[in-house]
Design brief:
Elements (H helix, E strand, L loop, with lengths): L9 E7 L8 E5 L29 E5 L12 H8 L5 H26 L6 E7 L15 H6 L10 H4 L3 E4 L19 H9 L5 H6 L6 H4 L10 E8 L8 E9 L3 E6 L10 E5 L15 H22 L1
Parallel strand pairs: 2-3
Antiparallel strand pairs: 1-3, 1-4, 4-5, 6-7, 7-8, 8-9
Length: about 325
């Protein structure tokens, strides 16, 4: 199952179920410092992040090497694939950083395969947010765009900011080449991993966690039966600060519609709303809220119900 767009951070989650019932080895391979200033991304893969003990011991690894991310300073060994193309310079640098991440993932997976663990390991690829870097758009001369991508990407309220790839890989267990249109979310990752590990979701987590196991979709046995996703954004793009500025926005995403409500002033009329028809306008270029006020009412009701559910689940 995939979405679109790369992101500012790419993550790889590995859950090895070699010996269910054994003590789980947990490792987070996510350096909070800009380690790529000290060496190539693959320096954090292979032996130094895998369990040092028996290969029969199950393990969990979260591999998040801060790639792709500014500074877009991939080594020439990765940049060279784009250097002599007609791409913009910012696209060359960004794509080279994606290639850098891919190289690290490749080394990590090679090491897992060399240890005979590939067929026992569920691999999940996710991003933290969307990104916009068209092939020929140049952002190097604009600090905000260079740091956050195009105006409809990171820290914007558009679909590109929220829609990211979610990829599951498990040789001989998950059929390759399956693409589904179900509405899925990052909150579904934890329930899915627990499901494959044969671990029941704790009752106290069920009340707080809106996610659902994606295993039925992955294995072609069903769906999550979800017709929309609702979310809340507390930070948005700023013209002056790459970190953004405070916001109070809600969004609703259905298979067709992407709805945005700016709640900062408490207004509930359509002047504080945006609506995009993603079937016919996937870039989100035309706000059609004026001709679909009935949908505005429906989505506002969904936001109200979502907020009430969040509040009640934490009381």
């Amino acid at each position: 199952m995939t979405g679109i767009a790369r992101s500012v951070f790419s993550f790889l989650i590995l859950l090895c179920l070699a010996a269910p019932g054994d003590t789980l080895y947990r490792q987070e391979a996510s350096d909070k410092t800009p380690y790529r200033k000290k060496g190539p991304a693959p320096s954090h893969t292979s032996e130094n992040i895998l369990p040092p003990s028996s290969p029969d011991r199950p393990f969990f690894i979260w591999y998040g090497p801060s790639l792709p991310h500014t500074p877009l300073d991939a080594p020439f060994s990765h940049y060279k694939y784009y250097a002599n193309t007609s791409l913009s310079e910012s696209a060359k640098q960004y794509y080279a950083n994606c290639t850098w991440f891919d190289a690290g993932v490749g080394e990590l997976l090679d090491h897992i395969e060399a240890r005979g663990l590939r067929e026992n390991t569920l691999i999940v690829y996710v991003n933290d947010n969307g990104w916009e870097q068209p092939p020929f758009e140049e952002y190097t001369d604009d600090h905000i765009l260079y740091s956050n991508g195009g105006p409809k990407g990171k820290l914007s309220l558009h679909d590109l900011a929220f829609r990211t790839p979610v990829i599951f890989h498990w040789p001989r267990t998950i059929e390759p080449g399956i693409f589904e249109e179900d509405m899925v979310s990052m909150v579904d990752i934890a329930p899915t991993l627990l499901d494959y590990a044969g671990v029941a979701i704790p009752d106290d987590l069920k009340a707080l966690w809106p996610g659902r196991s994606l295993r039925p979709i992955i294995e072609g046995n069903g769906s999550v039966e979800r017709d929309m996703l609702v979310g809340h954004a507390t930070q948005q793009r700023s013209e002056n600060d790459v970190m953004g500025q405070p916001a109070d926005h809600y969004y609703v995403r259905t298979p067709r519609w992407h709805f945005i409500w700016d709640a900062r002033e408490g207004a509930t009329d359509t002047t504080s709303m945006q609506l995009y028809d993603m079937e016919h306008d996937s870039d989100g270029s035309e706000n059609v809220i004026g001709s679909h006020t009935d949908l505005a009412s429906r989505f506002m009701e969904a936001i109200t119900a979502w907020k009430e559910n969040i509040v009640s689940s934490t009381e």
